[in-house]
Amino acid sequence: MSSSTSQQLTKEEKQVEKDLKKIYSESPNLYYIVKEEGHIIRIDLDYGGNMEPEVDIGKLPESFRHLKWLRMLKIHDNELWELPNWLCELTALQTLVLNDNPICSFPETIGNLASLRELSKYHQRVSKWSDHRLTQLPKSFCNLTSLEKLDLRSNKINMLPEAFGNLKFLRILNLDSNKLVSLPESFGELESLRELSLSGNELTSLPESFGNLRSLKKLDLRVNNLTSLPSSMRNLTHLEELESGGNNFDDDVKVLLKNLVPK
Fold it and tell me: With contact defined as beta carbons under 8 Å apart, do 100 and 130 qualify?
């Protein structure tokens, strides 16, 4: 299904339409195309479930590599096992949603998506693809300096790249339910961060630079292995919501936390 304009698509974009019509021949309502000024700018792909005959995309059609004007790609709950390297040539892409797909890694070239503002690859179906989750991020991930929202909850990421602090426009970050033990010192350079969720990890400490996150308004540290917090936490004077249960804080830390968000 598509939303069209009067202008003509390129030959390559017409091939994308043909490919999707073939793939979704029995479930035409499971895909959605938006066109603007004669080009495809958005594609949504769903699997259907009980609503339509199920369609599972295991591999992106080769024709997608020519979608030079694509700004939004959403692929929900399919069987996409990997992202092709050529996807990272679609430099107009601003939103990429890959939730509930068995992708275990991002290509090293993902850093080429310089316009990307939102990236989501989380799992709502806890049991599905439980052995096929992200475990780490490539170094080039830190080149995604336009990112504003990143949601990677319910994966198995055990560490972040050292240069993660390069993502200076990041406003919302959700890393709940991963395997993080620590955060890089550069984490404190995320100066635009407003909302941060780190619950359900294995964090034993936070970097001293954590107190530099002065724009932070919402913070969730529940269910980790934290026993102490850096003294710089006192600098988080804009906090409005703080969740910290399920750790092993002593009384001094509990007082600090209480004073951060006075009732």
Answer: no
